[in-house]
From TrEMBL, chain B:
It comes from Streptomyces echinatus. This is Electron transfer flavoprotein alpha subunit. PANTHER family: ELECTRON TRANSFER FLAVOPROTEIN ALPHA, ELECTRON TRANSFER FLAVOPROTEIN SUBUNIT ALPHA, MITOCHONDRIAL. Binds 1 FAD per dimer. Its cofactor is FAD.
Length: 261, 320
């Protein structure tokens, strides 16, 4: 039987660009270049490796996001994923983590799955909670923040490197895992991969396809509200000295003045 | 006065500092009721009482150590039912955020993660967050259900505020999902004797400029002269010079110490994301154009192999 892997990927504003908020205090996604969240590339990579080691597997990439989010799906397809699903709906604008997890869970169920793989966090929201929320909704085990992952005989195993300890974890499929940027370098799409991706199927679903009401998502459905967003004042220019043999001592003098010594 | 649930992060009964900071914040909103789970749960009570916990709900079972996340969600949900609090506060660790998120979903609430400050508001607690690599600061509120908020370390001062801290056994029934994720092995991290990175008042970090694992002894010597924690950039970690647990930045630890000293670190956006909120920032870098200098209160353009040992010597001399 085939192993059905769904990878959740997010389309995010480029972190090296000038990110800001729109007037309604949602993340501005119009004025900034977007891309497949770098941390989700690791999820795609692990999905491809697991599928390469399985007898028969299929990798579907799934995104919830605006029109341009197709770019993220294209990138994942050119890395080697088999097919893609794009959940897109005007009513999704402003959806928070709780709402996103609802849409993802419904879409994952509709797609059919044995294993879901997510990134450790999105590079814009950086909450790192969506995989846990999806696990709660699907009622399957969460095996998150793995720096190593493998699947064998219907069991997923992995290593989670925490602060206090490094843990070996395992769970029965179906399950959801998330992988960190320590899980292994993500591959670059080859020219062949990029060409092949153009022919791979991308399905588009809206909220009605998932039996979700507009009020359950978007700004109206949000459980949290951003009331103010202020640009942090630039740090006041500090003192910069060139080391002419006394740099360490000058630094010590500064630290003493600040009462650190 | 309304009660506020505070999830206790402890190691075999020793309460970690971020939990005590949480008690300070909880007292701005209401009366802190602490929830301590697992081995040594009851031993946390004295410390928690000293810092303002009016009550300490405890429960121990092997499930907390043997399975990930869900047993703790079950317990926190039981505590939520027992107390009907005005808010639930959880330390922003990786597991803390996951526990908080699942609890929020179960109790029909919203969740705010990684708050750096918390105030009481007319319509419930208002959380301050630092976003987009700390270039923006936002104020948010949970507008449905009991606010569930995770708070970053170093967000408030630890304050003594003696309270009753009466220990009560929490009654917990585990859900059938509790045993889904099994912990089959655990290798505890060896203690370096240095302060915890996220909790330290001073952090001394090294980057690609340190140029080799063996050279990190220079960084460690400076850290030890200041009683500081040691951090590293991802470039240094990826090169295998220092453990990943010490990485500072977007995919490592986010730190907010009184003093951050960056050595041989260029200051890429992903690194800044984890240290930009430090009170005082100092850097040593031989490239005067390195972006890290945009952040510093004091910077030395120079070779770290000259500057850092001289600094360490000078600190030792001054400290006598
Ligand atoms: C999704 C994603 C997540 C990331 N997460 C993180 C993260 O969590 N943390 C992180 O740090 N990075 C992260 N990065 C990587 C980040 O983009 C940078 O590549 C990294 O921070 C660079 O590390 P560095 O400053 O040590 O190295 P470099 O950028 O190579 O800088 C080295 C600096 O050392 C100086 N130098 C060299 N020799 C000396 C000397 N002898 N004396 C003094 N100065 C010297 C050089 O002038 C230079 O400025 C992430 C990247 C991505 C894409
Ligand atoms: N809109 C989305 N579409 C698809 N996947 C998402 C979306 N938002 C979050 N995810 C997944 O959840 C992970 C964690 O996201 P977050 O909790 O937002 O930090 C990401 O790395 C993605 O795998």
């Amino acid at each position: 039987m085939s192993l059905r892997i769904v990878v959740t990927v997010k389309y995010v504003p480029d972190a090296t660009g000038d990110r800001h908020f729109a007037d309604d205090l949602t993340v501005d996604r119009d004025d900034v270049d977007g891309l497949l969240s770098e941390l989700d590339e690791y999820a795609v990579e692990q999905a491809l490796q697991i599928s390469e080691n399985a007898d028969d597997a299929e990798v579907t990439v799934l995104t919830v996001g605006p029109e341009d989010a197709k770019d993220a799906l294209r990138k994942a397809l050119s890395m080697g994923a088999d097919k893609a699903i794009h959940v897109e709906d005007d009513d999704l604008h402003g959806t928070d983590a709780i709402g996103t997890s609802l849409v993802l869970a419904k879409a994952i169920e509709k797609a059919g799955y044995d294993l879901v793989i997510s990134g450790m966090a999105s590079t814009d929201g950086t909450m790192g909670v969506v995989p846990a929320l999806v696990a709660e909704r699907l009622g399957v085990p969460q095996v998150t923040l793995l720096s190593e992952v493998s699947v064998e005989g219907g069991v997923v195993k992995g290593r989670r490197d925490g602060d206090a300890a490094s843990e070996q974890l395992e769970a029965q499929l179906p399950a959801i895992v998330s992988v960190t940027d320590q899980s292994g370098e993500a591959r670059y799409p080859s020219f062949k991969g990029i060409m092949a991706a153009k022919k791979k199927p991308v399905e588009s679903w809206d909220l009605s396809d998932l039996d979700i009401e507009a009020e359950e998502v978007g700004l109206d459905g949000a459980f949290t509200k951003v009331e103010a967003a202020n640009e942090r004042p630039a740090r006041t220019a500090g003192t910069i000295v060139k080391d002419e043999g006394e740099g360490g001592k000058q630094l010590a003098e500064f630290l003493a003045g600040q009462k650190f010594i | 006065m309304a009660e506020v649930l505070v999830y206790v992060d402890h190691v075999d009964g020793a309460v970690r500092k971020p939990t005590l900071e949480l008690l300070t914040l909880a007292r701005r909103i209401g009366e802190p009721v602490a929830v301590a789970l697992g081995n040594g749960a009851a031993d946390t009570a004295a410390t928690l009482a000293e810092h303002g916990a009016v009550k300490v709900l405890t429960h121990d079972a092997s499930e907390y150590a043997d399975y990930l996340v869900v047993p703790k969600v079950d317990a926190l949900q039981a505590a939520h039912e027992a107390v009907s609090p005005a808010a639930v506060l959880v330390p922003s660790s990786a597991e803390g955020k996951e526990i908080a998120a699942r609890l929020a979903l179960r109790i029909g609430s919203g969740i705010i993660t990684d708050a750096v400050d918390l105030e009481a508001g007319d319509e419930g607690p208002v959380a301050t967050q630092s976003v987009f690599a700390a270039s923006f600061s936002t104020k948010s509120r949970v507008i449905k259900g009991t606010p569930v908020i995770t708070v970053k370390p170093n967000s408030a001062a630890v304050e003594a505020a003696p309270a009753a801290g009466a220990v009560e056994a929490l009654s917990v029934t585990f859900s059938d999902k509790a045993t889904g994720t099994k912990v089959t092995g655990r290798t505890p991290r060896e203690s370096t004797g240095r302060p915890e990175l996220t909790e330290a008042a001073i952090v001394v970090s090294g980057g690609r400029g340190v140029n080799g694992a063996e050279n990190f002894s220079i960084i460690e010597a400076l850290a030890d002269s200041l009683g500081a924690a040691v951090g590293a950039s991802r470039a240094a970690v990826d090169a295998g010079w220092y453990p990943h647990t010490n990485q500072v930045g977007q995919t490592g630890k986010s730190v907010s110490p009184q003093l951050y000293i960056a050595n041989g670190i260029s200051g890429a956006i992903q690194h800044r994301a984890g240290m930009q909120t430090s009170k005082t920032i100092v850097a040593v870098n031989k490239d005067a154009e390195a972006p890290i200098f945009e952040l510093v209160d004091f910077g030395v353009v120079g070779d770290l192999f000259d500057v850092v040992p001289q600094l360490t010597e000078e600190i030792k001399t001054r400290k006598g």
